[in-house]
Amino acid sequence: MLDALAGQVGPRTIVRDAELIAPWLIDWRGRFHGAAPALLQPDTTAEVAAIVTAAAAHGVALVPQGGNTSMVGGATPPADGSALLLSLRRLNRIRSVDAAAGLAVAEAGVILAELHDAALAQGRRFPLTLGARGSATVGGLVSTNAGGTQVLRHGTMRGLVAGLEAVLPDGSIHHGLPSLKKDNRGYDLKELLVGAEGTLGIVTAATLRLAPAVTARAVAWLGVADPATALALLRRLEAATDGVESFELLPAESLAAVLAHLPDARAPLADTHPWHVLVEAVATAPDDEPPARLLERLLGDALADGLARDAVIAASEAQAEAFWRLRDSISAGERAQGPATQHDISVPVDAMPRFLIDGAATVEARFPGTHASGFGHLGDGNVHFHVRAPAGADPERWYAEAAPTVTRFVHDLVVAAGGSISAEHGIGQMKRDELARLSSPARMAVLTGIKGALDPHGLMNPGKLVLAPGAARQ
Ligand code: FAD
């Protein structure tokens, strides 16, 4: 296949040097290790189409990869070397930014931070951000239906994608970039490809919705009694303003873990509180109330009404960044405390306060010595729910023997609460068997049917999300 392809693509597109390929064969967290005889790095949609056509003709599997920041082993090829790695990183042009229409067309390999900059240069904003913004790409964000810290106001990628260009598993190109407000031509290919994790085709470019640029922001840190009070506060804020973009909840122990991990960091409030909230409010129009004044007013009322125990509004941009750094360092801080299983889960927003308290207690009762807690995007009903191993547990043994049972137990609780075992990171290879175990037969039949219809030979990102009908388990 590679020999046949060599005449059709540029000299830099096929990489066979094992040293250059090696860094891309391991996932971000170092949990999945793959192998691939070559890395393909096309820089045009036509080259992607030539590669996929050749792969289909030769029966060769392809694993698409963007920034390789997947948290679920989604972009790591199989360990047996049976697939080629298809990196979209060189397909990285921003084709257009139309400030008036509020639309940008970006190729799959454009890095999120570069998209932010390009939109800002035109006085607009791409309103989705996450910790991996310096590496994650448009193609990966689309393919995982990524979320982040602004979903509360702007939704996930699904709502921000107005059109898609993609190469389908037979090598044909789907030209779906025009943004249509109304389009009722039956099944929506764009919606199928968003969140498909590369199992139905290769995203080559996307038309993305932009929002007005932020003219001012304010970030506040609050102490609250419990998650139910935090949710009541969020509902109060939502009723009063549409300027709140982020509302992140964390328990006292998460803050303590971060402070232990970052020697130069300081707690924003003098006293300790059982739970903390980080709120960000923004202004985007000249006549919007300045966000610091807005928060001062709304949080003052909340304090008076007992919805918050204490609050501080960042006095400077540096302090606002320091608050966010505390939030963004929770995973690292908790990892430093010892082995733990992490679960990216969601339940209906109103059910989350109860899940955080009762779910943690149920897990700890079932697995004595463990410690369970959740933090994150309360307003999205999405938290990262961690279960720490008992003190003194041997990490390797705990991960191999106890952790899978703990994870299945947590997932069962989530499903019983009407939730999802993947709120924003996707399924990848890490959660594939859990998805199959916990989905209804009706749902699995549809997923498998769609996979079989679009990719009958199972060549698109094999082993991830859902197996092609008749495919062997890996
Ligand atoms: P990759 O990791 O390369 O790939 C992800 C999946 O998409 C794989 O299945 C891959 O095969 C497929 N894929 C990639 N490109 C294409 C393409 N062009 N066509 C078809 N399929 C493709 N995620 C969130 O949602 N919210 C967060 O807040 C968040 N925070 C994070 C913080 C950190 C520090 C890290 C490391 C990750 C975080 N993530 C978060 C996860 C990750 O950043 C997202 O899933 C992101 O969308 C992945 O983008 P990527 O370009 O790195 O994709």
CATH level-two architecture of the largest domain: 2-Layer Sandwich
Rough outline: globular
Count of DSSP E strands? 18
CATH class division of the largest domain: Alpha Beta
**Helix/strand/pairing category:** alpha+beta
The pLDDT mean sits at 95
Can you give the helix content as a percent range?
Answer: 25-40%
| Strand order of the biggest β-sheet | 15-12-14-13-17-18-16
Whole-number tally of structural domains? 4
User: Which spans of ≥5 residues are poorly predicted at pLDDT below 50?
Assistant: none
CATH topology of the largest domain: Uridine Diphospho-n-acetylenolpyruvylglucosamine Reductase, domain 3
Rg of Cα set: 23 Å
Task: Describe the largest sheet.
Answer: 7 strands, antiparallel
- State the helix count: 17
Small-molecule binders here are:
flavin-adenine dinucleotide
Query: How far apart are the termini?
Result: 23 Å
Proportion in β-strands? 15-25%
Keywords:
Uridine Diphospho-n-acetylenolpyruvylglucosamine Reductase, domain 2; seven-stranded antiparallel beta sheet; globular; Uridine Diphospho-n-acetylenolpyruvylglucosamine Reductase, domain 3; about 35% helix; alpha+beta; binds flavin-adenine dinucleotide; single chain; Alpha-Beta Plaits; 17 helices; about 475 residues
Write structural notes for this entry.
This protein is of the alpha+beta class. The chain folds into four domains: 2-87, 2-Layer Sandwich (Uridine Diphospho-n-acetylenolpyruvylglucosamine Reductase, domain 2), CATH 3.30.43; 94-212, Uridine Diphospho-n-acetylenolpyruvylglucosamine Reductase, domain 3, CATH 3.30.465; 216-331, Alpha-Beta Plaits (2-Layer Sandwich), CATH 3.30.70.2190; 338-416, 2-Layer Sandwich (Alpha-Beta Plaits), CATH 3.30.70. The protein is built from 17 helices and 18 strands. The protein has helices at residues 2-6, 18-21, 45-58, 112-121, 138-143, 151-154, 157-160, 189-193, 227-240, 252-261, 291-304, 317-328, 330-335, 352-366, 395-416, 432-438, 441-454, and strands at 14-15, 39-40, 61-65, 83-87, 94-98, 103-107, 124-125, 161-167, 173-176, 202-209, 211-212, 216-224, 244-251, 275-283, 310-313, 340-346, 371-377, 382-388. The strands form four sheets. A seven-stranded antiparallel beta sheet has the order 15-12-14-13-17-18-16, sandwiched between helices. Strands 5-6-10-8-9 form a five-stranded antiparallel beta sheet. Strand 17 (371-377) and strand 18 (382-388) form a beta hairpin. The two termini are 23 Å apart. The mean pLDDT is 95. Flavin-adenine dinucleotide (FAD) is lined by residues 28, 63-71, 74-75, 88, 108, 130-132, 135-137, 139-141, 143-144, 146-148, 197-198, 202-203, 424-425, 428, 461, 464.
